[in-house]
Amino acid sequence: MPEDNIDHIDFDALNKKALSAPLVTHIYTADPSAHYFNGKIYIYPSHDIDAGEAFDDLGSHFAMEDYHVISMDSIDSKAVDNGVALHVDDVPWAQQQMWAPDANEKDGKFYLFFPAKDYEGIFRIGVAISDSPTGPFKAEPKAIKGSFSIDPAVFKDDDGAYYMYFGGLWGGQLQRWRTGVFNADQPESPTAFLPADDEPALLPLVAKMTDDLLEFDETPKALEILDKNGNLLLSGDNDRRFFEAAWLHKHNGKYYFSYSTGDTHFICYAIGDSPYGPFTYTGRILNPVVGWTSHHSVCEIEGKTYLFYHDSSLSKGVTHLRSVKVAEIEYREDGSIVTLDPY
Ligand code: FUB
Fold this sequence. Notes:
1 helix; binds beta-L-arabinofuranose; mainly beta; Tachylectin-2, Chain A; 37% strand
């Protein structure tokens, strides 16, 4: 349900038929990256605020300043806000816009991965460390070398290797890196430098992390998303091509790469046999929610699989004031996922 439809929405009626309710209502939260650490659920969301920035297609209105970690003892228990886990003022390299984060655990330490704009207005990805899954986190002095764009998601494979998936179009700046260096021309245009509709779509990236999880262990590689005929999805295939919100999870030995299609508001997934892909487009996990963005994570908890997602129903459609929700997802025998309708 894109932004321009909200005048016609009866929010009371919509909320009554919603698949699920916001997990917390005292603050706005979005972009939930959920993990199950040591028998407890931890959600690493963006913390949405109204900073007074006007709506634009570069996402300037997403002017978030800090992160809070939400925890739950079980999927049915109350969601607890653990307070400020990291503030932009405590990140030496970051100027503004603390967008969608993720976290992971290694050897008893917890790592928060997050994008923010540096002092040149370029999105980079940083790491912050804590002894606790709820923080507070201490940021590394510099962003990850060679990092760019937004929406990091860090997946731990069964062999103990960690991979970061990232990238986002328009305000996420991925299209500005097509030549390998940042293209600062036409700064106000979210769509300049995108491929033509009949060219292959821009691809998300993946990089194996170093053992200390602080740097890329390799130059990020493009993650191919193919149609059933083995062809790359095209840039004009807005209903299926990657836009932002990368996530990787594993089910029955297969790798599921899921993502948002951005301007068409779907959460889609593609299946592959390796963390590097290629992935074959398979379908949708979630139909459009109220609000422009859609962003999710998939987390297995006690043998069931859950989709953590957000919508703007609590704020009655305000694009940058979103709320995190959760719903169970089901697989069919062939490994495909039953599409959820949020309302
Ligand atoms: O929350 C800011 C941005 O909006 C995220 O980084 C995107 O994925 C979209 O949800």
